[in-house]
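Hi R.,

Here's the chain you asked about this morning:
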Amino acid sequence: MERCSRPVISIITPTFNRRLSLQRAIESVQRQTCGAYEHVIVDDCSTDQTADFVGRLNDPRIVYIRGEHWQGANIARNIGIAAARSNLVTFLDSDDEFLADRVEKTIRFFEESPAAQLHLSSFRVLKRGRLRDAINPTRFLNGKRLEEVLMAYRVFIAGSSITVRRAVLEKAGGFHPNIRRMQDRELLLRLSRYCGGALSAEVDWIKHPSLDSISRPRQGYLESLNALLEVHADLAAEYRDVIGYQIARYLLTDVIRGRWWFAYKSLRVNSQASALRFRVADLVHLYRTSCRPALSS
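And here is the predicted structure, written out as tokens:
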């Protein structure tokens, strides 16, 4: 199949030492019912023969870029964005897979909604051998409302859900190079300053959590939340009650499940983190008052 002279959509996949899962991701793109795409794979200096594998595919729709040294997934994503030839950009993590009609339906949405800038699709997560739904209601959220539900964790999000017009993506500055976890939420928060987002209840991809995923371990969540809030100090102040409620829920889950040591360590992190530092009494109060806006409001 010939490479599209003008791909309608660019698919960005960063990868590092994930040759086996990358194969599944690439094959899911090659099975698409619409071929008007380019698949930009940015290899963050893998050492597992990823380059040889991709080269043997001999697929002209694949654009393979290999870095000279490891830089991190967000810089790899930004390299892919810079190399993309389409005005429409979507993402596929190297451990995820698209359903066969993902590209076709995404292109159709933007063709039928020329004013739309950002689209967030729903997905399923494979956990313990079972597919679990992560489905949002179909609706449009203006920028401020999108910001609110992102801060309140009221929408299912992941990088492979995101499709955005390149102009607004570049205006927002792409992915933050220093946010290793919560990078998708952080990007969407910056995008919400420039545009609203269309949520879709239609499932068009499957998330496969990897053992080496940065977001997989429960530990490190509060450190990552603090890093995000240090970047968005204005949101840390505006949504302080909502943030406290989320932390209280996180701690309570550990307590209920008997993970006392993790809860204690998390309290220590909270007390030392520059953007957190909630008193225990305040966390209890915020949990009781349920400071969490509903998506339907």
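One quick note: The two ends are 48 Å apart (CA to CA).

Cheers,
M.
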